[in-house]
Write a structure and sequence with these properties.
Elements (H helix, E strand, L loop, with lengths): L3 H39 L4 H15 L2 H13 L5 H14 L1 H6 L8 H12 L4 H31 L2 H12 L1 H15 L2 H14 L4 H14 L1 H8 L4 H21 L3 H11 L3 H20 L3 H12 L3
Amino acid sequence: MMNLKELMLFCLFILIFLFGMYLLRSGLFNLSGKRMNEALKSITDKPWKGFLAGTFITGILQSSSAVTVMTVGLVSAGSMGFQQSIGIILGSNIGTTVTAEFMTFPLEKGIVPGAIIGAVLILFSHYYLRSIGFIIFGLSSIFSAIEGFKSLAIPLSSYKYFSTIMNEMEQHLFIALVVGAILTAIIHSSSATIGICMGFLASGDLSVQSSISIMLGANIGTCVTAYLASVGAGKEAKLTSYAHIWLNLLGAIFFFPFIGQLEAAAAFLTEVKSVQLAHASVIYNVICSSVMLPFSAVFSKFLIKMHGRE
């Protein structure tokens, strides 16, 4: 049975990662959130404009969930229709891959100095200095959590229950997809799920194919946040959350048989496994969103037919 110490440390590292993401997003949102919200409001006529805005804003705010929740809120308030929101959602799926790519940077040596500098800046009352402090301290927390996942990979793999799950995911990629969806739905962060995968990839306890499958599931699991944001809102807002769910579900279904090809494409770009996972996430989301963008109008009609419209 898994040692209580390792289990508590694993949960602690997840909390540290989520805390780091919260600080990072808070700092970035403080610096640019209001302008980003106004930018989203102005996207009302062309899906491609929403696509570009969703990609850019998510890349800045480092959270597709935050952008999707903002979009659901705007739709609920009547600032835009759900048809216009589809382009933003497609773009946000691409923009969120920036986080995975950034997590592959070799910044381990800067964790402690970054945490100290960030903590000092947070103590300042100046708005921008505090926001920068949140960003730096948040990044340090994220990289420290990833290092923690790496350190836990070996002791965790020695436990029968854990090794059984890992073996099942290696032999049955669908199980890995389900694990990715459930874990992300629980912790509300696909980035944290990918960060955990990177830790086990670095230790050799997880293959790239299994990690890609978990990533596909994580894209589905992250839809829970947007759906919860739409509860109690109007029908248009609910349709926006349904669009998010269907887009990620259909993308995972389509790509699941081609995980091997996705791994090969990522391996062609780099030999580092953790970077392969980040690249695979980019390739997957870019293809899915780019293919779906020209069919935004057809897709919106499909959603109305499936879920109705008041």
